[in-house]
Amino acid sequence: MTPLPRTVRALVTAALTALLTLGTTTAPARATPEPQAPADFVALDSVDPTILEEIRYAAPHNFVGEPIDGYRQPLCLLTRPAAEALHRAQNRLRRQGYTLKVYDCYRPQRAVDHFVRWAKDIDDQRMKAEFYPQVDKSRLFLDGYIAEKSGHSRGSTMDLTLVELPAKPTRPYVPGEPLVPCYAPKGERFPDNSVDMGTGYDCFDTLAHTDDPRVTGAPRARRQLLKSTLEGLGFVNLAEEWWHYTYQPEPYPDTYFDFPVSRASLPGPR
User: Fold this and answer.
1) Among the four 27, 64, 76, 77, which has the fewest Cβ within 10 Å?
2) What secondary structure, in 3-state letters, does the chain show?
């Protein structure tokens, strides 16, 4: 047999080497799919589209000052029993000239982890003047404002308020704008379209305690209206936060979910 020319032998050897390399190369790793919500989670607007939604953690107007991990859309997700109970509350309140507005509903664990990282970064105090003007950031864990787990991650807890009908829009927050303490008089703090509840939402201050005796008059009456309406339908208030309610019995009392806040996280038709 006539030997192959040296150039041809080199080309054949290179081709065989390339084929062997391709055969032994590890296939690229596939992206890990996002966790999905259980079948009984719903978007609140599919149960009651009249309830207003201003999801603060999907945008920068919150105590961190930036959108929070896991909030892919400004959307309220809840277990169906909690959403249906909110719908019943909305029917009662609309007859009295109010609508509910939710600030937060289901919160993924990755968002809670974001809060924890932020709380440990003592130097980041860009939103202090509004949300925790009298609290030393180093005490946020000790004082119970930040924790490594949140009932919101179980899917039946929401933060909400009352808005007088007809509802007016809240003007957009502009990052970097001057901040006013969350306990300042209603006309001075950020112009939320909600009624005056004595403090703004997510106010890290004892004035935000639902029954704080220093809150009197119309703000106290509105807190009690919200509380009595929701408690009559199975909700329990967190005494330290006038806006925080949990529907009970919770379908998932011991499970902390981490699927993103997105319609894509929901099972079946969106």
Assistant:
1) 27
2) CCCCCHHHHHHHHHHHHHHHHHHHCCCCCCCCCCCCCCCCEEEHHHHCCCCEECCHHHCCCCCCCCCCCCECCCCCEEEHHHHHHHHHHHHHHHCCCEEEEEEECCCCHHHHHHHHHHHHCCCCCCCHHHHCCCCCHHHCCCCCCCCCCCHHHHCCEEEEEEEECCCCCCCCCCCCCCCCCCCCCCCCCCCCCCCCCCCCCCCCCHHHCCCCCCCCHHHHHHHHHHHHHHHCCCEEECCCCCCEEEECCCCCCCCCCCCCECHHHCCCCC
Active site members: 241
Phi, psi of 138 (to 5 degrees): -65, -15
Q: What pTM was computed for the model? A: 0.88
Instruction: Give tens-digit pLDDT for 199-257.
Output: 999 999 999 999 999 999 999 999 999 999 999 999 999 999 999 999 999 999 999 99
Examine residue 33 and say whether the peptide bond preceding it is cis (omega within 30 degrees of 0).
no
d(CA 267, CA 109): 19
